[in-house]
Automatic annotation (TrEMBL):
Residues 2-209 form the Glutamine amidotransferase type-2 domain. NCBIfam families: asn_synth_AEB. The keyword Zinc-finger does not apply. Belongs to the asparagine synthetase family. InterPro entries: Asn_synth_AEB, Asn_synthase, ASN_synthetase/amidase, AsnB_N, GATase_2_dom, Ntn_hydrolases_N, Rossmann-like_a/b/a_fold. Its EC number is 6.3.5.4. This is asparagine synthase (glutamine-hydrolyzing). It comes from the Bacteria. It catalyses: L-aspartate + L-glutamine + ATP + H2O = L-asparagine + L-glutamate + AMP + diphosphate + H(+). SUPFAM superfamilies: Adenine nucleotide alpha hydrolases-like, N-terminal nucleophile aminohydrolases (Ntn hydrolases). Gene3D superfamilies: Glutamine Phosphoribosylpyrophosphate, subunit 1, domain 1, HUPs. The lineage of its organism: Bacteria, Bacillati, Actinomycetota, Actinomycetes, Micromonosporales. Pathway: Amino-acid biosynthesis; L-asparagine biosynthesis; L-asparagine from L-aspartate (L-Gln route): step 1/1. Keywords: Amino-acid biosynthesis, Asparagine biosynthesis, ATP-binding, Glutamine amidotransferase, Nucleotide-binding.
Length: 604
């Protein structure tokens, strides 16, 4: 795990070395154990290393072929590297997973990406082909951004260091509009018009003239040829966890009293691996520590409880670590801090379990879509929507005749933070969300899972997990977010989904079955209280300042209306927090970015 950086230029010079050194310094938190720098005729590559696999110098980057023709900087973990060594007869020295990449590239080119099992973002400089290639894993667990500058192409693992190279970065209207709708930017969006993200499941290649081509890592990555049974699901889960446990440092496990993290604790015990379970007491009055302690004890793991109420300094550090604005992520930031305080640099997380196993409450709403379609036919939904007008805006939208009648539409609605009327008041230039097409009638759990994977997992959970765990130099591993496991899980019952009870039955653990039958549990923060009188209240109060940078990009009247509605209890804390988090993120940037001056740029 690390931070990677580079400059690709037709006109090499000392400026490129200076830029990469600067990027390495800015990404030191991603890799405090080692720093690497490589310079070629038309490229400079850099890396900061967090040593988790192969703690020797064999993990030093950049990795280079024996003949010096291919150099690679790599962020992530390749869990099947030993298998690839055997399959392709690779002779790369050392045990480090990333060391195989230059030789594998020589053998396969871009076809190698589909054979990698794990999480990755990488840059490959090939002096023979005279190309540079950037690539990200199928789910986009690891980030990678690039920027065109007069001297050439600049790349980095994080967007903030690249923004430092732009005199006054401009906010992308499209990304800002997406944030206002969903509380996070899109999976493949950058906050700034000058900076681009390498797409998840994609690669981009530039030739010597910096002409660009692109492709996908895997075609139809989550398609399974046939419905899998519970035995296959159990085996696939154990295999994924076993691969994610490969490490040369002790592992931690983020343990709540819920099923996903409990299943990880069970799997570690089944595989004969002891882990340190970490539970954070968020001070919300509903601590999960007792339930987590029982799970850890039952499966034979050590258990640590950490307090996580932040102070002003910690809140400021949270916003400084925020790469893209997000209403989420504070829980990951606090939990990762607790893991780091225990001296652990790698941890397992249950992130992705709800998407793969149909665990969100929205999956239960799918059964009502046929009823809503029938109501549309007899105009009953007009009356139903009218009953909720002025109350629950999401429910009124769902019940109305123009509401979603497909899994994707339902997924988009349930993930909304601000509705179209509120966004119009904040950003009159933002076009409303397109209405779902009448032809879209897929109401399956599989379609909703894909929607959640693309939008919430890819746009919110994974970017936040990377940014806020790496801020504490902790590698977060996500066994549920594994292509082979996901293929099996999503194929068990595409129409209804596996469900948490089905998953517990597949695992066959008596301890997990009652958890699956209970209410959904997860790490919980007392956000509303913290915003009103607690450690987040100064950030909330800052939104009201006439100098608040938020007021330079959004209509102050719309801002004040939402904040007043929250203070009076007329709207949810998440809406007020979406504005607070955006303002605090803007404040943490120097200089503060400006809004892109093309009113149509956000809607193309």
């Amino acid at each position: 795990m690390c931070g990677i950086a580079g400059v690709i230029t037709p006109h090499p010079g000392g400026e490129s070395l200076t830029t990469v050194r600067r990027l390495n310094v800015r990404q030191h938190h991603r890799g405090p154990d080692d720093t690497g720098l490589w310079s070629g005729a038309n490229a400079v590559l850099g890396q900061t290393r967090l040593a988790v696999m192969d703690l020797t110098d064999g993990g030093h980057q950049p990795f280079t072929t024996a003949d010096g023709s291919v150099s690679v900087v790599f962020n992530g973990e390749i869990y099947n590297h030993d298998e690839l060594r055997r399959t392709h007869g690779l002779t790369s020295p050392g045990r480090c997973d990333g060391a195989i990449l230059p030789e594998l590239w020589q053998r396969l080119g871009t076809a190698m990406f589909a054979e990698l099992r794990g999480m990755f973002a990488m840059a490959i400089y090939d002096t023979v082909r005279r190309t540079v290639t950037l690539a990200r894993d199928t789910f986009g667990v690891k980030p990678l951004y690039w920027l065109r500058m007069p001297e050439g192409l600049v790349l980095a693992s994080e967007v903030r260091p690249l923004a430092d190279l732009v005199p006054r970065p401009r906010l992308s209207r499209a990304a800002l509009r997406h944030y206002l709708m969903f509380g996070a930017m899109g999976r493949d969006q950058s906050p700034f018009t000058e900076i681009q993200s390498v797409p998840a499941n994609g690669w981009i290649q530039w030739d010597a003239n910096l002409s660009r081509t692109a492709g996908v890592v895997r075609a139809d990555p989550l398609v399974h040829p046939a419905g899998a049974g519970h035995g296959q699901l159990r085996a696939a889960f154990l295999e994924s966890v076993s691969l994610h446990l490969l490490s040369d440092v002790p592992m931690a496990l983020l343990l709540s009293s819920g099923l996903d993290s409990g299943a990880l604790a069970w799997a570690c015990a089944e595989l004969g691996t002891d882990v340190t379970c970490v539970t954070v007491d968020m001070g919300s009055g509903t601590s999960e520590s007792p339930g987590a302690a029982r799970l850890a004890r039952r499966f034979g793991h050590d258990h640590e409880v950490a307090s996580a109420t932040p102070d002003a300094e910690l809140v400021a550090r949270y916003f400084a670590a925020m790469q893209r604005p997000s209403v989420d992520g504070l829980n990951v930031f606090l939990v990762s801090r607790a893991v780091a305080a225990l001296g652990r640099r790698a941890a397992l997380s249950g992130t992705g379990g709800d998407e793969m196993l149909a665990g969100y409450p929205s999956f239960k709403l799918l059964r009502y879509l046929p009823l809503l379609r029938a109501g549309d036919a007899v105009h009953a939904t007009h009356l139903a929507a009218g009953l909720y007008r002025g109350g629950n805006a999401k429910l009124a939208n769902l019940l109305g005749p123009a509401g979603p009648r497909s899994s994707d539409g339902l997924g988009r609605l349930t993930r909304r933070v601000l509705m179209d009327e509120q966004i119009r008041a904040l950003a009159p230039w933002a076009a409303p969300e397109p209405r779902p097409g009448a032809a879209d009638r897929d109401g399956s759990a599989g379609a909703l899972a894909q929607s959640e994977i693309d939008r919430y997992l890819g746009g919110t959970l994974l970017p936040d997990t990377d940014a806020f765990s790496m801020a504490w130099s902790v590698e977060m591993r996500v066994p549920f977010v594994d292509v082979e496991f996901a293929r099996v899980a999503l194929s068990v019952d595409r129409r209804r989904g596996v469900g948490k009870r089905g998953f517990a039955r597949a695992l066959g653990s008596a301890e997990l079955d009652p958890i699956a039958r209970g209410r959904k549990k997860s790490f919980h923060l007392p956000m509303d209280g913290w915003m009103r009188t607690g450690p987040l209240s100064p950030a909330v109060q800052a939104v009201a300042s006439p100098e608040a940078p938020l007021r330079a990009i959004l209509d102050p009247r719309g801002i004040d209306e939402i904040m007043a509605a929250w203070r009076s209890g007329r709207t949810a804390w998440s809406r007020a927090w979406s504005l607070t988090a955006l303002n605090s993120w803007l404040t943490s940037l120097d200089p503060a970015p400006v809004l892109h001056d093309d009113p149509g740029a956000g809607d193309r």
